[in-house]
């Protein structure tokens, strides 16, 4: 299962973007998120089991700069999958990162790929 | 996928409609019908005699099938099923393959063995052809007879009268009419009625031979007597048409019928059977409503959303103009099962019977003759187990001037109002509210309710008027875009269907995938109902972040830890233990406004470690993170205070320990004061107690917060046990009926009737739910466990307390504190 553009094996060789192994599938709770450490970077990874979809966004909420999105509730607005920040309930599209209920900055979003039970995230 | 449906009767048609409606284009459907006409309304067959156009009986015109992409072969019965090759062969030589086969072959009238039964002038009463034949013979006849004094027989007899026969007799083998629906008394009164219509009724007669040549002229009975007639209709029961199934080796009942399970699957999982041909748990249902329910069960199963058929009762109402007869639920319950109330008004020909459960709470069934206007309401009362009013006889007295208590309003939303089309009360009210249906016709068009037997039309009207009346004030309080329900409605549904997971609630009653508003509501409902540790039941990610990590998230992303300190009483050792833990994990400590100690600034990763220490020192979770009982504050009371009347600390502790962990629509707080000086501020709590000379005064629905409100006195001078019982009821009532995030004060403010109503419910048990609520609360108490203890002892839960899933040992490096007054504080927002 894969979101975003397709992953060619050659991708990982490129310097400006590549796939990295984030964690095992079973480490991510169904319909919830976890935080992935990638160098100094924190990425929120979500397993939307109801839709059988995977998403990754930055973990920091642009509103008060809190490292908390991975602990937020996920759901949908219309058909759009979204996450709500646990602090003040700002909501962001998991697909595009756009703030759905206000004028906050958009989130960075990352493609996710599943290989057997390994989860990969593509980073720029 | 290819689906073949055998039989184009009422239930077979329903399957077509459901499958094409729910999944347009997904199935390739072929229908074989033995009759030459497309499916028609058999229930209203008799209307054909009174001049109803044949075409207006059709459930859909022939073009409809084509428009839906359905291949319809009429006048061409299926004569063989080949299970191996999965094909069916038709009489006219077609062979059609199927992936799934639905048998909807209905039933045929049962024809008793009687000498001469093959004579001319003897008819069945099942389809339009039968009616054509009867009509043409009737034109040349004077006298008619019907064998069978059941529902159909009486209908046929009345039809013969209407066709102009001078003398019509009904012959019944049993000692009373409608033996499956009526008791002795009911049957007698019905007989009187029918006689005034001109029917001649013969009971206890066994027909042994038919005489006449070539056509029938006379019936002979076993007692040697006879009856002259020119025309005879047989209506002695039905026999399911299982012949195809038998030939194909499917399991059938010893007395006929294709055996099906609750999904309507036969012994061959690729073959379903629905309607009058299906034998479910030993029952053949000769009524259309259960047939439609079966169609629903089968189609849902085919669509992979099983909705098992749960059986049905045999409630029916006779459709004879001028004779109001109905029977519902279990009409015969009596003796050790039920108390029976009857009303009998001889001169007016009214007889009513209701059977009430021994505890007086539920209606089990009954019989209505002469006046069946309450029929629909009573059927609903039985089906939905509506709690009866204190004077259940009001249900059948009805028109004493005062409104029937336990009327429409008491019906739950899911109450089936139109059983033919399976339309709920909610659908009807919604059509009125949201689709602007302001007359019965538009409700019919919009919902299909009332288009079957039409019996529900009066109740449709009432519902419409009530809804319109309420409309002026009506506020739509659905939970969020994903639910059409209020929290209370959803609570009732989840309870009724015993649903245990958030995802199932979403899939069954909601739309899309839920959100940050409805998911915590669902999680709270599940927690209130099933008392399960929220993180263990697979609903962890439906919890608000605080509930998910069993701690309150603070500025900066750290957490606070609040151990329970019941009544605010704490030993020096425990104070020391808290101090040591706080030092060990570098936590900020503060005495809260709730008489306990909060430890702030904990790393997510440290939470289980901190709790391990606290639990070892005898603490447990304080649920500061949950919509649950927070604190029961106390004043020191009679153990020390010179004014104290009772031991307020002990009582506060008892209460806190009883309700700890109880999940609710919002947090719940309490306090107990030892005298009227009120040092514990009990009158600002959701429920509060103040000691009096004789006991305790119980106050409810107070609130601090931004709109403070004083609590109101609910009851005075109670002993402790009674206090607890009233609080049990009060809390359960609140939990079941309040909107999300509504404190008790606001809940009461919105309640019609206010504190008086609440007092009636809690103290006088006006809803009859007190015992159930107390029992539910006892269950809660018995199943209580410290959530933190469960969390630290369950490895799968414990491992979630980590900031980085791929670096479990590391803390969030961005978390930062600043020093202040020898402790720390969270860093300012950026
Ligand atoms: C810690 C504490 C303040 C303190 O340092 O004393 C506190 C802290 C918070 N209160 Fe409170 N309240 C605290 C006692 C109170 C009291 C006093 C009391 O309980 O006697 C009140 C007024 C009484 C009442 O509730 O009626 C109180 C009325 C509120 C309200 C307003 C509720 C309302 O009905 O309007 C909120 C907001 C809400 O719940 O929506 C709130 C919400 C909060 C929240 C949860 C705000 C939030 O969303 O983050 C605070 C976080 C607590 C945490 O992280 O642990 N807190 N809060 C007190 C904890 C008590 C405890 O031991 O559990
Ligand atoms: C006069 C009358 C009054 C009634 N009044 C009421 C009432 O008031 N309330 C109520 O609830 N119910 C009433 N009923 C009963 C109700 O009509 C039936 O319960 C309902 O029609 C059952 O639907 P069904 O699809 O199972 O069977 P049917 O409607 O009988 O349809 C079965 C169809 O399958 C066809 N078929 C059989 N075998 C084959 C084959 N091998 N190949 C192709 N086609 C085949 C039959 O010809 C028939 O057309 C009444 C019935 C009658 C006759
Ligand atoms: S009063 Fe406001 S600031 Fe103080 S604890 Fe309560 S919610 Fe927080
Ligand atoms: S920090 Fe995320 S909404 Fe305020």
Polypeptide structure, described:
- The complex is a heterodimer of chains A (124) and B (830).
- By secondary structure, chain A is mainly β.
- Chain A has one domain (18-123): Rieske Iron-sulfur Protein.
- Chain A has no helices and twelve strands.
- Chain A has a four-stranded antiparallel beta sheet with strand order 2-3-4-10, with no helix packed on it.
- With 830 residues, chain B is of the alpha/beta class.
- Helix content of chain B is 31%, strand content 20%.
- In chain B, strands 3-2-1-7-19 form a five-stranded parallel beta sheet. In chain B, strands 9-16-10-11-12 form a five-stranded parallel beta sheet. Chain B has a five-stranded antiparallel beta sheet with strand order 21-22-25-24-23, sandwiched between helices.
- The longest helix of chain B has 18 residues, at 720-737.
- The two termini of chain B are 59 Å apart.
- Residues 399-406 of chain B have low confidence and may be disordered.
- At the A-B interface, strand 2, strand 3, strand 6, strand 7 and strand 8 of A face helix 15, helix 16 and helix 17 of B.
């Amino acid at each position: 299962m894969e979101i975003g553009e397709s992953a060619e094996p050659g991708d990982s060789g490129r310097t400006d973007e590549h796939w990295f192994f984030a964690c095992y599938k079973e480490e991510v709770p169904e319909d919830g998120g976890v935080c992935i450490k990638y160098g100094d970077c924190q990425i929120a990874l979500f397993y939307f089991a109801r839709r059988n979809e995977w998403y990754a966004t930055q973990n920091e909420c642009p509103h008060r700069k809190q490292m908390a999105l991975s602990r937020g509730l996920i759901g949908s607005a219309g058909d759009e999958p979204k996450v709500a920040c646990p602090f003040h309930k700002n909501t962001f599209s998991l697909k595009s990162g756009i703030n759905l209920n206000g004028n906050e900055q958009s989130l960075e979003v990352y493609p996710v790929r599943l290989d057997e039970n390994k989860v990969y995230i593509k980073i720029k | 996928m290819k689906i073949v449906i055998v039989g184009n009767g009422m239930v077979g048609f329903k399957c077509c409609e459901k499958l094409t409606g729910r999944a347009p284009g997904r199935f390739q459907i072929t229908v074989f019908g033995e009759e030459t006409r497309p499916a028609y309304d058999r229930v209203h067959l008799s209307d054909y005699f009174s001049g109803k156009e044949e075409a207006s009986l059709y459930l859909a015109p022939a073009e409809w099938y084509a428009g839906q992409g359905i291949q319809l072969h009429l006048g061409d019965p299926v004569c063989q099923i080949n299970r191996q090759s999965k094909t069916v062969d038709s009489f006219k030589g077609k062979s059609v393959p199927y992936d799934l086969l639905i048998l909807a072959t209905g039933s045929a009238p049962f024809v008793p063995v009687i000498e001469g039964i093959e004579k001319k002038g003897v008819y069945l009463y099942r389809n339009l052809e039968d009616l054509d034949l009867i009509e043409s013979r009737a034109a040349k006849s004077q006298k008619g007879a019907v064998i069978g004094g059941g529902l159909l027989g009486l209908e046929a007899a009345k039809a013969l009268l209407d066709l102009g026969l001078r003398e019509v007799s009904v012959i019944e083998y049993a000692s009373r009419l409608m033996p499956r629906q009526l008791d002795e008394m009911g049957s007698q009164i019905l007989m009187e009625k029918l006689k005034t219509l001109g029917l001649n009724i013969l009971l206890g007669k066994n027909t042994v031979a038919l005489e006449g040549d070539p056509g029938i002229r006379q019936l002979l009975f076993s007692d040697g007597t006879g009856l002259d007639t020119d025309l005879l209709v047989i209506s002695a029961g039905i026999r399911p048409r299982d012949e195809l199934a038998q030939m194909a080796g499917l399991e059938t009942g010893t007395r006929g019928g294709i055996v099906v399970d609750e999904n309507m699957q036969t012994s061959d999982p690729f073959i379903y059977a629905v309607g009058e041909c299906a034998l479910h748990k030993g029952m053949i249902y000769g009524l259309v409503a259960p047939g439609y329910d079966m169609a629903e069960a089968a189609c849902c199963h085919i669509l992979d959303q099983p909705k098992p058929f749960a059986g049905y009762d045999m409630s029916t109402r006779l459709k004879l103009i001028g004779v109001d007869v109905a029977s519902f639920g279990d009409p015969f319950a009596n003796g050790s099962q039920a108390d029976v109330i009857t009303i009998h008004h001889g001169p007016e020909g009214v007889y009513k019977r209701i059977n009430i459960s021994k505890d007086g709470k539920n209606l089990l069934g009954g019989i209505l003759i002469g006046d069946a206007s309450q029929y629909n309401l009573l059927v609903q009362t039985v089906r939905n187990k509506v709690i009866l009013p204190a004077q259940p006889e009001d249900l059948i007295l009805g028109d004493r001037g005062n409104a029937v208590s336990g009327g429409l309003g008491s019906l739950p939303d899911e109450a089936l109002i139109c059983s033919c089309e399976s339309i709920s009360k909610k659908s009807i009210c919604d059509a009125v509210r949201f689709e602007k249906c302001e007359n019965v016709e538009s409700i019919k068009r919009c919902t299909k309710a009332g288009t079957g037997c039409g019996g529900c039309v009066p109740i449709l009207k009432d519902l419409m008027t009530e809804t319109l009346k309420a409309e002026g004030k009506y506020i739509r309080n659905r939970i969020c875009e994903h639910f059409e329900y209020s929290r209370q409605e959803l609570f009732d549904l989840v309870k009724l269907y015993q649903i245990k997971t958030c995802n199932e609630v979403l899939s069954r009653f909601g739309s899309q995938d839920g959100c940050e508003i409805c998911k915590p509501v669902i999680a709270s409902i599940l927690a209130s109902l099933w008392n399960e540790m929220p993180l263990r039941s697979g609903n962890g990610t439906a919890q608000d972040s605080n509930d998910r990590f069993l701690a309150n998230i603070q500025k900066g992303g750290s957490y606070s830890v609040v151990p329970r300190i019941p009544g605010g009483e704490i030993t020096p050792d425990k104070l020391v233990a808290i101090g040591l833990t706080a030092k060990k994990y570098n936590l900020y400590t503060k005495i809260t406004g709730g008489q306990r100690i909060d430890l702030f600034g904990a790393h997510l990763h440290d939470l289980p470690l901190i709790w391990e220490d606290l639990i070892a020192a005898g603490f447990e979770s304080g649920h500061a993170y949950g919509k649950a009982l927070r604190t029961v504050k106390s004043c020191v009371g009679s153990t020390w205070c010179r004014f104290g009347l009772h031991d307020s600390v002990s009582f506060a502790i008892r209460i806190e320990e009883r309700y700890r962990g109880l999940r609710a629509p919002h947090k719940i707080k309490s306090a107990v004061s030892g005298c009227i000086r009120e040092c514990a501020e009990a009158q600002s709590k959701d429920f509060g107690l103040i000691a009096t000379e004789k006991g305790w005064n119980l106050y409810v629905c107070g609130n601090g917060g931004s709109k403070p409100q004083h609590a109101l006195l609910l009851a005075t001078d109670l002993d402790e046990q009674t206090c607890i019982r009233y609080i049990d009821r009060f809390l359960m009532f609140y939990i079941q009926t309040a909107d999300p995030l509504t404190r008790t004060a606001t809940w009461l403010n919105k309640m019609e009737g206010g504190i008086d109503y609440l007092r009636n419910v809690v103290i006088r048990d006006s809803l009859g739910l007190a015992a159930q609520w107390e029992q539910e609360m006892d269950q809660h108490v018995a199943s209580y466990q410290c959530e933190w203890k469960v969390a630290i002892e369950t490895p799968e839960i414990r491992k979630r307390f980590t900031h980085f899933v791929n670096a479990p040992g590391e803390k969030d490096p961005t978390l930062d504190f600043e020093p202040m007054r020898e402790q720390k504080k969270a860093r300012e927002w950026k």
